[in-house]
Amino acid sequence: MSGRRTRITEDEINELVSKLQSLLPEARRPAAGRASAAKLLKETCNYIKSLNREVDGLSDRLSGLIATMDSNSAEAEILRSFLRS
């Protein structure tokens, strides 16, 4: 990696902020126009944290489901095949 830094223009930053805003769910975006970059970054971090919590919850539910299944059942095999994919 080179020791030189690449400068990002204000237009490039605005474009990146717009792209990031488009990735957030509609319900989390401010109703009136564009949010500041700082607010958008904070919302993005909160959204990522909520997705992580959701994944953790789903993983816990899946683990509980697998624990209650007969390990040789067809359902258990289907779940194992999904997990391997």
TrEMBL record:
What does the record give under GO molecular function? protein dimerization activity
What the entry lists under Pfam families is as follows:
bHLH_ILI
Q: Does the keyword Transcription apply?
A: yes
Superkingdom of the organism of origin: Eukaryota
* Alphabetized UniProt keyword annotations: Growth regulation, Transcription, Transcription regulation
Where's the BHLH domain?
Answer: 1-51
Family assignment? Belongs to the bHLH protein family.
State what protein this is by name. Transcription factor bHLH135
The species this protein was found in = Platanthera zijinensis
Upper classification of the source organism reads:
Eukaryota, Viridiplantae, Streptophyta, Embryophyta, Tracheophyta
Name the gene: BHLH135
